[in-house]
Amino acid sequence: MADTALETATAAPPSRYAGTRVARVEDTRLLTGNGTFVDDVVRPGMLHACFVRSPFARAKVNSIDTSAALALPGVIAVFTAADLNPDVREAWHAVAGKDMPDTPRPPLAEDEVKFVGDPVALLIAENRYLAEDAIELVDVDYEPLPAIADFTKAQTSDVLVHAEYANNQAGGMGGAPPDEETFSSAAHVAKAHIYQQSYVPVPIETRGMVVEWQAAPGELTVWASTQTPHELRAFTARLLGLSAQKVRVIMRDTGGGFGQKVVPMREDMCILLASRKVPGPLKWIEDRRENLMTAGQARHVDGDVRMAFDDEGNILAADIDFVQDIGAYPTPYPVLTTAAIGMFFPGPYRVPKCSFNYQTVFSNTAGLAAYRGPWQYETLSREILLDIGARQMGLDPVELRRRNILRGDEMPYFNPNGMPYDHVAPADTFEQAVKILDHEGFRKEQREALEQGRYIGLGFSAYIEPTGAATGNLGSEGCTIRMEPTGKINVYVNGGSTGNSIETTVVQLTADALGADIEDVSTIQGDTAVTPYGAGTQGSRSGPMTAGAVNEAGTILRDRLAALAASMLSVEPSEIELANSKAVVRGDDTKSVTFADLAYRAHYEPGMVPPGTSATLEATARFVSPPTAMIHWANATHACTCEVDVVTGQVTLTRYIVSEDVGPMINPNIVEGQIAGGTVQGIGGALLENQAYDDDGNPLSSTFVDYLLPTAADVPTIEHGHVEIPGPGVGGYKGCGEGGAIGSPPAVINAINDALAPLGVTITSLPATPATIVAAIEAAQNNENRGQ
C-alpha cells in the first residue's frame, strides 16, 4: 500500500505526556555543569577577538593607527571599516525581508562614531587577555561632535544621527485620526503622559560566537549563542556571498536570549567577515559591560494616551500618540515593528474607536533591539490609564475593567484597528485573577492598613497578545522524526533551547504522536547540518509551530509503522494501534510487535517487507500555518499587591497572581516557568532597571553596580491560574514566551499608584524607584499646601 493512501489510516494515539508535568530533559546536563555554551567551544589554533569601541557618543574618526598594537607579540591583526565593510554582500534579515527599506547598519563605524561603544576596530590575538590589553594600543584620533542622547528632543535637535534622516526621524505611521467629537462630548476623559525607560534583556550568557573557516572546501562553521540557527546560517551566507550549503551553524546551549539573539548584530557581522582573513578559528565572547552598553536597548517610549467613557464607564474611544527611541543602529527595520504598539492599544477591551500616531527617532545611544513583547508599551500605557480613569470616575479599577473587558461569547471580535481576536475570553482570566486574589478581602485589609498609617495597594493589568507568529518566514516549521535500528526515536527540529525547553516539549509531543514511551524519544536541535529549516525562537511561536511540525511528520511515520506492523501481524493497517512503543491489534493484546521489532525488520530484513509497504522509518514534513490559524491569541490578567514605605519610597511586593490562557499546556511546569521568568523581568523594569545616559550620551549603567536587577528578595511567590481555551492550531496550543514581561510592569505601577492614591500621587514615569516615589509624594504635598 502506498504511503499516500495511508496518510489518515492510523488514528493518533491518546495523549499520555502532553499536558503533564514531565521533568525537563535538559536539566540534568545543565544542573551538573555539563552544558555546552559558546565559551565552552575550543578549536585547534583558535584566536580571540576584541573590539575597539568609541568613548564618545558622537565623533568624527580622523585616523586609526594600529601599528603599536600590531607590534605586540601575539597580536595577529587589527581590522578597521576599510578592511571589513566593503566585503558585505547582503545584510538583510528575514524577519523584515529583503525588500523592506531598512536603516543603516555598517559592521564597523565609518568616518563617524554614533554612540558610546560603537565598534571602531576589531583586534585579533592569540588569547583574550592579550586582545584586551592590545586594544589600548590602537590609537584612534577622534574629533568630538555634539550628540543628541535624549530622544524626546531628537526631532528638534540640530544634531543629526544620520545625515540622510531629517529631524532624526526613521519613520512613523498613523491610523485613523482621533474622533475629537467623541472626546469633547464624552462624560469622562482620562489622560496621561507616560514615559517608559530603556531597559534590556540581560541574558545570563552574553552574545558570542566561534567561527571556523576552512579554505580548501570553502566551508564555514559557526558555533553561536542564537535563537535562530537557520536564520543565522542564511544571513551568514548572504553576508559573505557563500552558498548556504557551505555554511553550518551549531547552537548548543544558550543562556537566554529574550529577543536579543534573534538577529545577528553588527559585532556578529564583523566576526563573520574577519573569519576568512585570519589563520585560525575565531572566538568572540561579549563581556557584561559590552552587553549593557552595545547589545541594544528596548522599550524607551514617551507618549500621550487618553480614553473617553460614557456615564456608565463604558469605553467610547481611545487614542495613543507616542515616540519610540531606536538609538543609532536599530535591528532590524524598526518603523514597521513599532506599529504593533498602536495596533494593539485597544487591548482585550470593547473599544469602538481607536486612533494612534507614532514616530521612531534616532539618538546617539545603543540601537533598538527586540525584547520579550517589543510592543509592551501599549499594555503599560493603557492599563495605567484605566486605573487613572477609574479613580477619576470614583470606580474601583476592577469594576471599570469588568464593564469593558471582552467575553468569550463576543468572539470573533475585530478591534477597531482590524486585529481579529478569536479563541479567547479575556473576561475569564480576569475573573479568575480577581477570585484568586479575594478582591473584596483585600479592600477591607487596605482600609484597615490606612487607618494604621500603612499604604498598601492593588494593581491589575490585562492584555491580549498574538502568539504563533506565523507571517513571512515565521509561517512554517520543519520536523524530521527518525526511528533508529534499535526502535528508539530521534526528533529533529530547528530548536534549540534558550530557556523555553523545546527539548522537553518536542519529546512529549513526539512520544504522543507515535504512541512511544517517552524514555524512547530523544531530540536533536540547533544544528543546521541535520535539522530542517525553522524560524527559531521568537514571537511566542515555538509551541504552536513545533506542535504542528511534529504532527505533520508524526502522521506520516505513524502510518508507515502501522503498515509495517500490519504486514507482520497479518491484519489491515486500520486494525493497528500504537501505544507503549508497540503496535497492537485493536481488541487483541496478544497480537503485537514492539517498535524494536519493527525497526529490526525495516533496517535488517528489508527483503521481508511486502511490496508497497515502506521500510523507511523516517519522515520529514513542513507545517505551514493556515490562514485561519496565523495568529493564536493568548491573554492574561496580572494582579499585584504591594506596600509602599512613604518615608523611604521602598516598594515591597506582597502577592503576585497571573491568570493566563495559553490554550492547553504541553507542560504546565514549562508554561509557569515562562510566565514567572517574564514576570520577574517586568518587575525589574517597573522598579529597578534603567539603561540611563547623561546629556552627552555617556552610559550611566554599564555594570551591575548601576544597572539593578531584581533578585529573589524582590519577588513574592508567583501564584498561577490557568484558563484553557484551545487556539485554532494543532492541539489548540498557544505561545507563552512573552506574556509575563508584558503584563507585569503596569500591574506593579498600578499597585503603587493604588497605595499612594490617598496622597494624591500617580506615577507615570518609569522606573518607580524609591527616589521617584519620594519626589512624587513631596510634590503632591507641596501642591496640597499651595492649594490651601
Strand content: 15-25%
The major beta sheet can be summarized as: 7 strands, mixed
Mean pLDDT value = 96
Proportion of residues in helical segments: 25-40%
- Measure the end-to-end span: 91 Å
Structural class: alpha+beta
Low-confidence stretches: 1-8
What is the level 1 CATH name of the largest domain?
Alpha Beta
CA radius of gyration: 28 Å
How many extended strands?
A: 28
Number of helices: 19
CATH superfamily of the largest domain: Aldehyde oxidase/xanthine dehydrogenase, molybdopterin binding domain
Number of domains: 3
Strand order of the largest sheet: 3-5-1-12-9-10-11
CATH architecture of the largest domain: 2-Layer Sandwich
| CATH fold-level topology of the largest domain | Aldehyde Oxidoreductase, domain 4
| Structural shape | globular
